[in-house]
Amino acid sequence: MNFSITLKIWRQKSEFDTGRFVSYNLDHVSPDMSFLEMLDTLNVQLEEKGKETVAFDHDCREGICGACSLYINGEPHGPDRGTTTCQLHMRRFKEGDVIYIEPWRAKPFKVVKDLVVDRSSFDRIIQAGGYISVNTGNARDANAIPIGKTKSDLAFDAAACIGCGACVAACKNASAMLFVSAKVTQLSILPQGHPERYDRVSKMVSVMDQEGFGNCTNEGECEAACPKEIKKENISRLNREFIVSKVKSAFSS
Amino acid sequence: MELNSKIPDGPIEKKWDKHKFDVKLVNPANKRKFNIIVVGTGLAGGSAAASLAELGYNVKCFCIQDSPRRAHSIAAQGGINAAKNYQNDGDSVYRLFYDTVKGGDFRSREANVYRLAQLSVNIIDQCVAQGVPFARDYGGLLDNRSFGGAQVSRTFYARGQTGQQLLLGAYSALSRQISLGNVDMYPRHEMLDLVTVDGHARGIITRNLVNGSIEPHAGDAVVLCTGGYVNVFYLSTNGQGCNVTASWRAYKNGAAFANPCYTQIHPTCLPVSGDHQSKLTLMSESLRNDGRVWVPKNKEDKRRPNEIPENERDYYLERRYPAFGNLVPRDVASRAAKKMCDDGFGVGAAKTSVYLDFANAIERMGKQTVEAKYGNLFQMYDRITDENPYKFPMRIYPAPHYAMGGLWVDYNLMSTVPGLFVLGEANFSDHGANRLGASALMQGLADGYFVIPYTICDYLAESLGKDKIDTSHASFKDGEKAVNDKLKKLLSIKGKRTADEFHRKLGRIMWNRCGMSRHKDGLTEALESIPKLREEFYSDLIISGSGEELNQSLEKAGRVADFFELGELMVRDALNRNESCGGHFREEYQTENNEAMRDDENYSYAAAWEYKGENDAPALNKEPLEFEHVHLVQRSYK
Ligand SMILES: Cc1cc2nc3c(=O)[nH]c(=O)nc-3n(C[C@H](O)[C@H](O)[C@H](O)COP(=O)(O)OP(=O)(O)OC[C@H]3O[C@@H](n4cnc5c(N)ncnc54)[C@H](O)[C@@H]3O)c2cc1C
Ligand code: FES
Fold first, then answer.
1. ipTM score here?
2. Which of A15, A34, B92, B165 has a CA-to-CA distance to B56 between 20 and 30 Å?
3. What domain count does chain A have?
């Protein structure tokens, strides 16, 4: 059964303008629509009336690219756990619902337009050290170093991060610790990542701080909001790695 | 136009080694003098940009997403092939080569495919070294699964997120080069034109998608890695941003477009459920390892699937292809599903899907094992359809998925425009008329990590010492003007219908006339209806907002405009090819058992189309395909 809803959407012309909520009524919403398809429908209606469409990031619509990033009724990616905005379906809502839609709110993610934000700070954190320095052609046979299944599964769980930024949006301190810890965990568990292990963590954390992300005060909101259910144990691991890196650099200097 | 494939001579196993020795080199000091433009950051672009920068070239890299990590390669699920033979099940470079040529229905270039199979093994090594967490067994060694069109297990995977993990590997290598200052990265930039000077590719024109500014970029070579074009069908498994624009504008600047009608329709996708739908979600081919495809034997059977007893089910793939069963290649599986539905055996309310059933697998391995193998796919299915696939079989139907066609390239991956290289899904090279599962990731990474770093030298070495061209050259001004004019034209129409609506209509024509099966009559009709719809597009399109800001409607309109022109070329190509092969199935040309019937005598060539101007028909150039190693036979998977 199709139904009608009211949307309160954050509209902001550009980084340099102030934004505000604008209200829209939308009829004939099908429960089988995805949340983004619902917004597509709104956009078609706006465009046909010659009004500016609502800008939002999206691409794969399968929960893997990390582009979609909506703050829905006060929750990053909306009410379903372990689900990105693009995988949220309208059957989760009902006739008469009022739905607030905002961009990620965090100082390091400035609004580009409407619901689109700038997450390039995440790229810069990875550029600081979120890699293994191995040039093309320098690799040994893939089976030369066996890696126990438990270990490799653990590395995979952390590597599943899609870099959407929900963890930051959920955190009252706008901390990026879950994001950074996921990469640090993946590369510190795998033997291939060991040579740069401590250098990596110290560089990544330092850029994270420079970009203006806040401290982690153990609220756990990041874990609850993460669409890939990345665990906050990774943050503990990051802290341990970071301490060791400090100790090591103290001894070597 | 001359098509020189530049295939090295000598025995097939030695060609690549010999070629690597024969190509000209650029010494390290000189590499720094070259600026290379890489468009795209998927597996092909990400790996190419990183590897070229590692060698010392100055690289500028572009993508349309907000971060290079979000290229559509990220969505690949199932896996990547490599002839490692870790399973000791008889795999070899030669077998991977053979399977790929056969799987492509004998419409690819042997030498390229052989090289691809050779390089496959290096890819896995490289990725593991980067920290890609491939699936492993309890002994800590890499695990494999099987994919369609093969009888060995050679597919490496990282749960159902192989593309993500491989892309993050390439992205990390790229990030490292960005931090070292060897790559300038331009996210949210769309290439809208190729700039040529004296017939050579010398740069591109981009639009900054955030503020709309039109910018020229000059380089000594341009490497296009902009992905595939099956979004021409509107509904497909591709991401919303996938488009043909970069390739198309290159085509209009002289790059031949090869085999545009070779598109892959993937057998296991979620069926269309309503008009609001924006994409068709893929259910990885890996599911066919354990899932069984069936329909009820009785057309009128209205029972729920679980109530239909074994002997009243038709496992039609197992019945028709006992040797390969559910693991026949994609084109074969898709057509078989279409046939069952066309004949009235489809299931679901509209009878337009077939079952993919895991009941046996769950019984055999236990729910837990099935969950470990396919959990994320099952969850995705459940979310979209609100049905539990552990309890009821999935309902699936074929959907547009991959483009085997693309810009024509020679053995060096260079197009017919000197200095313009094309990698990954954007080129036409290795998959003939049908791609085998898990081979696109392999090709994208082979092209980017291991082919282009060698072959680009051959071209660059020639331009050493020649005058550098910069963006003050008149060709760049012309390019900017052309781009601006095109955008203004779209913005000034001020009609009533959105680009999305036109796209949907175009997609319907393409799907009905040039989709899973094609017929001369339908194709001829499409050659009239597409231009008609395009005329309406240019008189009744509406775009809100301006060109000087982030404007997603404008982006979409530009891409749809190019899809119209590509669509027409696809139809022309399909009409020209009076045979059936791989994904190109002409109803007039089929065997008694409804299999594709090739005509090797007349169509054993790659069709490379050449742009001849706005008002002229494109010209057809033929690259004859010669088969020295693989015997041309009617494909059989029985
Ligand atoms: C759902 C799905 C699952 C798949 N699963 C598998 C699998 O399991 N195994 C397998 O082998 N293959 C699989 N494939 C196929 C495979 O993923 C793709 O063919 C491959 O990843 C394409 O890589 P690419 O680098 O050529 O292009 P893409 O990854 O599509 O990258 C294109 C790049 O070009 C950029 N770009 C495009 N146009 C422009 C422009 N005009 N200006 C600037 N930049 C531009 C984009 O931003 C992007 O960075 C799958 C495909 C899909 C859709
Ligand atoms: S659109 Fe890709 S994760 Fe949502």
1. 0.98
2. B165
3. 2
Q: Tens-digit pLDDT profile for chain A (253 aa)? A: 899 999 999 999 999 999 999 999 999 999 999 999 999 999 999 999 999 999 999 999 999 999 999 999 999 999 999 999 999 999 999 999 999 999 999 999 999 999 999 999 999 999 999 999 999 999 999 999 999 999 999 999 999 999 999 999 999 999 999 999 999 999 999 999 999 999 999 999 999 999 999 999 999 999 999 999 999 999 999 999 999 999 998 888 6
Q: What is the C-alpha separation between A84 and A62, in angstroms, rounded?
A: 8
Question: Among all ligands shown, which has an atom nearest to the Cα of A64?
Answer: 2
A124 and A235, same domain (yes or no): yes
Centre of ligand 1 from the C-alpha of residue B238, in Å? 8
Residue type, B254: G
CB contact under 8 A, B131 and A52: no
pLDDT at A253: 66
CB B463 less than 6 A from any atom of ligand 1 = no
User: Which domain does A18 fall in, by range?
Assistant: 3-112
Query: Which residue ranges make up each domain of chain B?
Result: 266-400, 475-612
What is B475-612's CATH topology? Answer: Methane Monooxygenase Hydroxylase; Chain G, domain 1 (1.20.58)
Tell if the CB–CB gap between A140 and B281 is shorter than 8 Å.
no
A44·B498 Cβ contact <8 A: yes
In A175-214, the residues whose Cβ lies within 8 Å of chain B are 186-187, 190, 192-193
User: Any residues with CB less than 8 A from the CB of B85 and at least 6 apart, and which?
Assistant: B91, B92, B152, B154
Is A46 among the domain residues?
yes
Name the residue of A60, A77, A116, A228 whose CB sits within 8 Å of the most ligand 2 atoms, as the mutation to test its pocket. Answer: A60
pTM: 0.98
The CATH class of B266-400 is alpha beta
Pair A123, A232 in one domain: yes
Task: List CB contacts (< 8 A) between A13 and chain B.
Answer: 549
B444 lines ligand 1 (CB under 6 A): yes
Could you tell me if residue A248 is inside a domain? yes
Instruction: Give me the active site residues of B, please.
Output: 330
Distance from CA of A166 to the nearest CA of B (A): 16
Least confident of A43-47, B149-153, B249-253, B433-437: B149-153
Q: What is the DSSP string of A82-134?
A: T--GGG-BGGGS-TT-EEEEE---BTTB-EEETTEE--HHHHHHHHHH-S---
A27, part of any domain: yes
- CA-nearest residue to A207 within chain B is B179
Pair A79, A165 in one domain: no
CB hemisphere CA count around A184 (13 angstroms)? 31
Residue B441 tokens read as 């990731």
Distance CA B139, CA A98 (A): 54
Whether residues A185 and A168 share a domain: the answer is yes
Q: B545 to chain A: which residues are within 8 Å by CB?
A: 52-53
What is the rounded CA–CA span in Å between residue B500 and residue B135? Answer: 40
Cα B258 versus chain centre, distance = 13
Q: What is the CA radius of gyration of chain A?
A: 21
Q: Do B276 and A149 touch (CB under 8 A)?
A: no
**Averaged confidence pLDDT in chain B:** 96
Together in a domain, A154 and A238: yes
C-alpha of residue B93 to centroid of ligand 2, in Å: 36
Beta carbons within 8 Å of B204's beta carbon, 6+ residues apart: B37, B39, B62, B191, B193, B194, B195, B216, B217, B219, B222
Minimum distance, in Å, between the CA of residue B167 and any CA atom of chain A: 11
Query: Same domain, yes or no, for A93 and A158?
Result: no
A22 is a domain residue: yes
Task: With CB atoms and an 8 Å threshold, state whether B86 touches A60.
Answer: no
